[in-house]
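Can't attach files on this board, so I'm pasting raw text. These are the components:
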Amino acid sequence: MALLETKELTKAFGALTAVNAVSLDVEAGSLHSIIGPNGAGKTTLFNLLTGTFPPTSGRILLDGRDITGTPAARVAHLGLARSYQRTTVFPAFSLLDNVWVAAFATGKSWRGLIWRKTGRYPEVGERARQALADVGLLAKADVPAREISHGEQRQLELAIALAAGPRVLLLDEPAAGLSPDETRKMVSLVRTLKGRYTIVLIEHKIDIIMSVSDRISVMYFGSLIAEGTPEEIQRNAEVRRAYLGGVAA
Amino acid sequence: MKKPIILLLAAVVILPMVVRPAIATEIWIFAIFGLGLNLLLGYTGLLSFGQSTFFGSAAYVAGWLLKQYGINAFLALGIGVGVGAASAALVGYLCVQRSGLYFIMLTFALNQLFYFIAYQWTSVTGGEDGMPGVPRPALAGIDFTNPLVYYALVAVLFLASLWIMKRIVESPLGRILQAIRENPVRAEAVGYDVPRFKLLAFVIGGAFSGLAGVLYAMLFGIVPLEAIGFVFSGNVLFATLIGGSGSLYGPVIGSFVFIWLSESVSTLWARWPLLLGVAFVVVVMFFRGGVVEAWTRFWSWRSSKQKN
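---
Top answer:
Structure tokens for the assembled complex are below.
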């Protein structure tokens, strides 16, 4: 059964239709990738799913429940967490505090919000540590985020999303700007998350997509032009023309 | 006990022996005012140029009730906290809808609005002449008209305020506000309703400003029109920046420097604000963290020299 669904989802900015009648079914527990050239509307689709802005028309369903138009701060509580293409962390915070903030947000209760000391939320602290451990950054828990490398910031970016304990993880180009070596590390990281979370992945690097995805949807100028398994997508003539042409030939 | 607390307690005891009690009292009042501003400025990253709105409103309302109805001093302080918080809720609700320069201009514009209400409503506020005759009623046999006794009351309330603020900034709320300062987009995405948290910071800051406002009115026995003017808003901003907006104790140190300079140097040299200007430039150019940062940098520099 589809955990996350969109029905005829459309977003127009003036004359530009960035996302055009996209209907997507993301199966629970699967890794579903969205590929497409720059400007295809992939990130806009993520912004719609996470409530950054409302769609012009169409609907978004999470576990069968209509969440269309839910503001971003509420969407996080429904179990949708995202990472950003451009690193979006809390630079002055230690790595642990970065993930702590995300873990607290979706924690069981906000009791003691303005009075209890932050150290006295053991379950939040535990979840935060687990998220850092999952991306391999626990050893640097006390280092400020602005002092770690770009590659590590990309891992932290992912850890913040994990700390929320989401049902659906939306990853926007987790390997953006990484060296080949760092990219390999990120790919194996995403592989370890596969199965534990339902993942929607935007990625440019075709080899990554082909090796980790269960299903792939191809976007082109705002529309979905194909969907299928990695093998089906590789064989699809239209996809080759639109996107893979120069890359995977 | 930790070092800053011992230093503070020592300062509370020594200060009235060094300067006139009225000045010593004003320093702690201004420090309470600064603590409230710093929750917005230092922790949430919101530059409010209208803090005197809450300070002045509380001073007028509580001062008037003290004068007309002779209410209990603690009730007056409580009402001041309430008026400060309520006016901050009103102003904050309008301001948090915008960000950046528009936010700053809105806090300033609304401050001016309150100022002109006070300026025009002469039957209550006395307009330009201020509202004189605010009493300092005795409580439980304690006579607060004695300057030192009043100083003791203010000092205790200041220490209580500092403790409360310390708890707030060390709570989840404190960390969420700092997260909003660091990255509002991500704070929203991980599940915090950013405008609401900003509003909460306003209300808490307003409550502190209100407490300071009533103490100020009772200290001088008058609510001057300036208490709700933009110069006052600027003063608390300067004091906090000079002391260091990045830390809990910054506004306390800033208040000490600011009031001490304005009260002692101003009698010697009429152009003392020039000194303040120089101090401000030095802070902005070299020590963004104010006196607190200058102090920690000095000590780390010294200890690194001793090692070599």
